[in-house]
Amino acid sequence: MKLQNQITRITATLSSVLVLCTTFDLLPSVAKQKCGNTDEVQASTTTRTIEFKKFGIKIKIPSNYRTMLRNDGSVMILDPGSYEAVRCAAPRGLYYFSIKLLPNPKKLSLLELAKGSSKQITNEPTNIHNYSLKDTQALIIDAKSGYGAYGIFNVPGKGVVEMSANCDCEVDKTDIIKYLKDTELLK
To answer: Under a CB-based contact definition with an 8 Å cutoff, are residues 186 and 57 in contact?
Structure first.
């Protein structure tokens, strides 16, 4: 019982000290992490190749671009300004390229998957185009609104990979084709 009374008194004392400190601004200030440059940065002319073993692909990206793993397992490819904007949650529009595995438990064909996923992804009419990814069939899903474009293809032993270009600006199938041209399946 004595110990419980002592704990109660210590807790009350600490609470009072905390209230006094916050009331009179006596707590030490902690520097908030500031954002760096969040403006969109042009892609460098040099590239580097990134291997994504999880997706079974490697892709060339501008050497100044960054990758960011998301909680859902997808990976975003961002210019340095967009990377900084995401990192520090800056309120601005964002263009990003994303790679993820699409679940396909029903083993649908790419075309069936494209038709079904395009409704879930864009909830709007889309155009679906065939594309050859170095001897691998790919489909490009182009939202008619111009605010999203997706490419999907099978990677043996991994499943269906989706690449998407997303923005609050206009994007189209050329944004996907640019990345598909620089993508190879891992051997």
So the answer is: yes
pLDDT at position 7 is 40
Distance of alpha carbon 58 from alpha carbon 174, whole angstroms:
19
Q: Where are the alpha helices (DSSP H) in 27-184?
A: 80-87, 110-122, 173-181
Confidence of residue 21 (pLDDT cuts 50, 70, 90): very low
Residue 122's SS3 state is helix
CA distances from 125 to 23, 103, 110 (A): 57, 22, 18
Two structure tokens written together for 105: 């438990």
Query: What digits encode the pLDDT tens for the residues 151-181?
Result: 999 999 999 999 988 877 778 888 888 899 9
Using only C-alpha atoms, what is the Rg of the chain? 24
What are the residues whose beta carbons fall under 8 Å from the beta carbon of 59, sequence distance 6 or more?
Answer: 49, 50, 52, 77, 99, 179, 182, 183, 184
Supply the mean pLDDT for the chain.
78
Alpha carbon distance 63, 82 (integer Å): 15
Q: Are 89 and 34 contacting, i.e. CB atoms less than 8 angstroms apart?
A: no
